[in-house]
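Dear support,

I submitted the protein below through the web form. The confirmation email said the job was done, but the results page showed an empty box. After a refresh the structure appeared. I'm attaching both so you can tell me whether what I see now is the final result or a partial one.
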Amino acid sequence: MAIKAFHKHLLYSIFSLAILVRFIHKYDWPIWGSDSGEYLYLTRHLLENGMMLNENYIGWGRAYPDFQGMQILTASMSLLFGASYHTSLTWHIPLISGLAIPMLFIIGKELVGFTPALFGSAFYAFTFGVVYANSHPMPGGLAETIGFIMIFSWIKILKGGKLIVINPLKRNLWSHIFKISFVALLLTHHFTLLLLMAAILGMLIVEIAAGNKKIAKEGIIGIGLGSLLISVYWLIYAKSFRKMLDDSAFDFLPDNIPTTIVLTLIPLISLLILWLIKDKLHLPLWTENITHENYLKRAIASFIGAFVVILLVLWQGVPGTDIPVDLEATPYLSVNLAIMSLVCVPSFVISKKNGWLLWGWLLPILSLAAIGAITGSHLLIAYRHAPYLLAPAALMIGISFQYFMIGFETEKRKYITTLFTMLLLGCAWGAYPPPSVMGGFQEGTSQEEIDAVLWLNFAEEDSLVASDHRLSSLTFGLTGTNATWENGAIVINGNAEESIQAGKDLPTPQAGRKDVTYVLLSEEMQKGVALLQWDPAEELTGEAKTKFTDNNQFPIWFDNGDTIIMKMPDKSY
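What the results page shows now:
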């Protein structure tokens, strides 16, 4: 079916606005993202030394040196375009991340048609659950686009019916694209790879259950080989990442049971079970007769019900964390839930030829998010799954929107279209909720904060700076000075005596034990001291604040009116 010129212009407008939204934070903040400092540090090291920093890394992110696909791309683009490493990272990565929007549209058009793909990709482009997370210059943002390429190539392989071809001259083009995107994702971001491997397994199960039995053997073998390659990379090459798994995810295992064996066996046992039951898999028959009037009533009831449930959940804190959510979040949730409530008739999704594949994409990721929420895992933090869940959910929303529209008389559709256009613009307006909505966390760094951090270039060699997560990352990333991250919590939040005592022989994330030399404090940091990502960033108040601002125990060595650097005293007076 030919696409009207109006639809093309609308599509290009959505793509352009989506890119713009991912850069709008630059109007207020020169650097966006609480971990940007470490990514800058690794990129600079790669450019200056011609090789990646893999050992003796003393930053906070223990596994960052093991997954440097973003640094390789950023450094290459810096050399290719003659741009600084800072410009290359903070501009090129969000730009590439923004290309995920047209990529999701392409996937949607392949699976469910033009109109659902158009509306679904528009919602995905502007919802804060995606924009706020993936506008950072971080591996997850780059992995978003790479992951969609991998998903699309997997869909094309499933449709082609042939995964493994011995003769290289007869291999499917999509098979090559899948391999390239898989390797790129393997080098870039472990969390995205984990969730998307679960998604392609879910899609394979749906395809087998739909009657495509000939793909079962090759699909299981292919995913099995991919799982083995992941195990080799994660558990043999990525030594820091493996140690992190040993210390956190699998610390309950006895010493005589290696993590390597457990992580290798989990996917292989899952695939063996799939092989044993593949002939018994069938898609359920799911039909439903519903009038447009009843659909409207159900959509309204779904909005109210979902809103109440989410408020109750958030009242107890974001799942998997101790972060409360203020009622100020209500408008940001409302505008998104108003659109998401369209998906209240699941049979609409499976009415499309490939609708079941969306369920195969969504449910495995949803299962991992549920495991994270129930267990309180700090590796499977529930809220980190949101952007990955919203991709298939957005296409489901697009399908539902199509049915929603065709139920109205032609004359009324222009008013409904205007309403949903305003809702989408409302999503774009709320793409960057204030810190008070996001648990107190501030992702932006001001020029005044950067100026103060750069002053630390003149600090004594082997100094240790106490600050919160964001400014610790910038301190380390821009000057190479050791920082405390969350280990300096008592230095910042304690009273004068507690602070000075905690600053002696303080354990750093990876640089050993040191005495704190300086304390870095900004106006923005005082509004929310960000330490652990599963704890709220609480305002600095009371004696924790006055010990820095109302006495001379911590002499100020730098002050630009916004950010101060104080010398850590030897003793309390």
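Response: this is the final, complete result; the empty box was a page-load delay. The mean pLDDT is 86.
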